[in-house]
């Protein structure tokens, strides 16, 4: 169990107590056809890696799901994967700037391709949070969610700690854990590849020892090195390790699929965002007048980002200027311009052919050659080098939202921050009704709906759950409409992906007393009790 205890039983501790909608409609039909046509994740397509070529007409009609879900049923669906964690205060001096976090995920794909992770760094400092959006299957996202935080933690360790770990492992002595995981019992864990993953990680820290330790490079460099090294290991393992051909986590399957990643590292007042792809990080800032501002902490790596397009084009000859990015996709196929895995966009033609020829049980070299992207001349076209954003926490910074693109396709970042901010403060700022045309009956119905919302049966304790509920059920006035939410939650599996993507959300709550004490030049004692919203 690499995510919790399979990487090595001595390096971890027990788990904790427990684009837009239109683009989605255009892309999903093509994915549906590919899913039916291919049982293997090697050829499985999705909206990220298949061009929009078919535009069927769709309208939601369902006789079999005509009855509305009850509040209890909707709560049960929404809360199935929610998780909350409150950070424990260590002592009177070393207290965390993180108060706690809420997390949740809601599947659309079957099986779900999103993943999430959260952990405390025990031998270095700080906490790690991440959301991961898989494509062409879930194998790569699963591997990254289990492995990346170990690579980051090792990259941050001082030389002496690395040496102590290596000597203990070599002599089969107990080793102090380096991560404490905070996981929901439903979070997927791969138990089959633990030995391989540990071997690759150990090779990495051995190389860091030769270089003098990982902590000498700084947090930003450590994050970049960890991302790139993990992607390199995924690639090497796919070339060298055959694995069980029937396992969904065979190294080649992991490398053939792909995953974006948006990771936050919080250490005292230092916040680093390491982003790869089109998941996003947004900071919730409380203004002096009581309003909320969404501060963007990451950039999308897609065709919607002109700087990212220029970066990609600059790495290839001018003769490929019209083919590298086509239909707003990399080589006309892939939506994110940075990702783990996806060796189809990284390996040379010759390497791909030679590796696949030895994996006939998965896919023959001849068949795979036909699926190579057209105009594939100067690989690699895709990178796993993340973009790092640094921010020093301020008293007005109240929370951080990490979410996969399934959320951002449903809600604008400002709306996301406002919904959470109003939820935490208990102040609801409804959209004013002035300037809109209403009949008296319509206005009466709207006011009745708002009154009912205040006393609804929804459980609002987890802010991530609260956000997903609004993403799927809010009307144009910001009120959760029960009938709308019921329809979105009761869509059959074959239709759900046409209306929304997997949604994964983690909301990190900052400790305002600790942050303010830092700016006041003092320390907050551990016996100070903060209220966790």
Main sheet characteristics: 7 strands, antiparallel
Helix/strand/pairing category: alpha+beta
- Global outline: globular
Averaging pLDDT over every residue, what do you get? 82
Number of strands: 15
Question: What is the distance, rounded to the nearest whole angstrom, between the alpha carbons of the first and last residues?
Answer: 33 Å
Characterization of the model:
It is a single chain. By secondary structure, the protein is of the alpha+beta class. Helices cover 36% and strands 17% of the residues. Helix 14 (463-473) crosses helix 15. The longest helix has 22 residues, at 219-240. The protein is globular.
Summarize the structure.
This protein is of the alpha+beta class and 533 residues long. It has helices spanning 20-37, 71-79, 139-156, 159-170, 194-211, 219-240, 251-256, 306-314, 349-357, 365-370, 405-408, 413-425, 440-454, 463-473, 482-489, 493-499, 512-520; strands at 83-86, 98-106, 114-121, 127-135, 179-181, 258-267, 270-276, 280-286, 292-296, 325-326, 329-330, 340-341, 387-392, 397-403, 503-510.
